[in-house]
Design goal:
Number of strands: 14
Family: Belongs to the Tdpoz family.
InterPro entries: BACK_BPM_SPOP (IPR056423), BPM1-6 (IPR045005), BTB/POZ_dom (IPR000210), MATH/TRAF_dom (IPR002083), SKP1/BTB/POZ_sf (IPR011333), TRAF-like (IPR008974)
Protein name: BTB domain-containing protein
Order of helices and strands: EEHEEEEEEEHEEHHEEHHEHHHHHHH
CATH topology of the domain at 2-146: Apoptosis, Tumor Necrosis Factor Receptor Associated Protein 2, Chain A
CATH architecture of the domain at 2-146: Sandwich
CATH superfamily of the domain at 2-146: Apoptosis, Tumor Necrosis Factor Receptor Associated Protein 2, Chain A
Structural class: alpha+beta
Pfam family, one: BACK_BPM_SPOP
Number of helices: 13
Pathway: Protein modification; protein ubiquitination
Helix content: 25-40%
Length: about 350
């Protein structure tokens, strides 16, 4: 007999701009996050800059509220952890964990996390008047017992790892791409399965005269390297690989989105779009918006517009001063003058 319990975990980031302006709202006053889904239920965060009550007005408080049960019973056990992004180490720390009782039967389940404001403000948790909060919610379901059967363990699939090693090994490579003087060996069968454009280039009406050697124009070698990595791995390199720093990563991701569009790779386009949405800033938002307009990426367009509409006056000045502003100046002017709603 084996007793086990299933759990489900998810996280939500809540970014607070203009931290100093929000201070002074008053005890019990809060700012709400958007709703998010974990475990099939809807949740949201409450940010209390001046504390939740008079007893704890020296603390910054984050509340977690269960908004809707979605027709399901309240989970038997729920725990939540609030942590703050520490700019010095680029990691989340200064955390607080609280359990939510399953005995609460009202329609609004609510718990609060107290963070020492003095310790938070004395350290590098607030930089450029910005604070980033991460909430992790863990839902632990009722344990259950079952008869354990003797099974032969099946190892995880290795096909992705094996395919990913093919370009480095160069075994069986039957086509070489030349990109600004750099050579990249590859395998035709892998390329035609992954991209309709490569299929046309290698076996269709776009077939090159010498299909064993192809020159790629208007692309940087590093971008083509990432494109091949995705073709063989169906993913992009992990952030832990430190192949690029932050600014170079955003620049390469923009070029990679263009390459994905060029070779008809929709999944890669969506992945690039998600990365760019997560790393918008005053320096890059204008360039990113111009790219989104050019390649009709509506999700990325909306993210850029929301970023601009919710920006402070200082950040808007930084956007105007950025290198990519002129190329999309007309769009930015239209959005800034009422075509999108501004944050409250």
């Amino acid at each position: 007999m084996t007793c086990t319990a299933e759990s489900e975990q998810g996280e939500h980031w809540f970014k607070i701009s203009d931290y100093s302006i929000h201070r002074g709202m008053g005890v019990g006053c809060y700012i709400e996050s958007s709703w998010f889904t974990i475990g099939g239920h809807y949740w949201r965060l409450h940010y209390y800059p001046d504390g939740y009550s008079e007893d704890g007005k020296g603390d910054m408080v984050v509340g977690l509220e269960l908004m809707e049960l979605c027709g399901k019973e309240f989970p038997s056990r729920v725990s939540s952890t609030i942590s703050l992004f520490y700019w010095a180490t680029k990691r989340f720390s200064l955390s607080s964990s609280v359990a939510m009782s399953a005995n609460l039967r009202d329609l609004s389940h609510f718990v609060t996390h107290n963070i020492n404001r003095g310790k938070m403000e004395a350290s590098e948790y607030i930089v450029d008047d910005r604070l980033t909060i991460k909430c992790i919610v863990t839902i632990i379901k009722e344990p259950y017992v079952f008869e354990a059967e003797a099974q032969v363990p099946v190892p995880p699939s290795e096909i992705t790892d094996q395919l990913g090693k093919l370009p480095e090994a160069k075994e069986g490579a039957d086509v070489t791409f030349e990109v600004q003087g750099e050579e990249f060996p590859a395998h035709k069968l892998v390329l035609v399965v992954r991209s309709p454009v490569f299929k046309a280039m290698l076996y269709g009406p776009m077939m090159e005269k010498d299909s064993s050697r192809i020159v790629i124009a208007n692309m940087q070698p590093v971008v083509f390297k990432f494109l091949l990595y995705f073709i063989y791995n169906d993913s992009l390199p992990d952030d832990d690989d430190d192949l690029l720093d932050g600014d170079d990563k955003k620049k390469v991701t923009r070029h990679l989105l263009v390459a994905a569009d060029r070779y008809g790779m929709e999944r890669l386009k969506l992945m690039c779009e998600i990365i760019l949405c997560k790393h918008l800033d005053a320096e890059s938002v204008a360039t990113t918006l111009a790219l989104a307009n050019q390649h009709t990426r509506s999700g990325l367009q909306d993210a850029c517009i929301r970023f601009i509409a919710s920006s402070s006056t200082k950040m808007l000045d930084d956007v105007v001063a950025s290198g990519g502003y002129k190329s999309s100046q007309k769009n930015l002017f239209r959005y800034h003058n009422g075509d999108v709603g501004k944050s409250k």
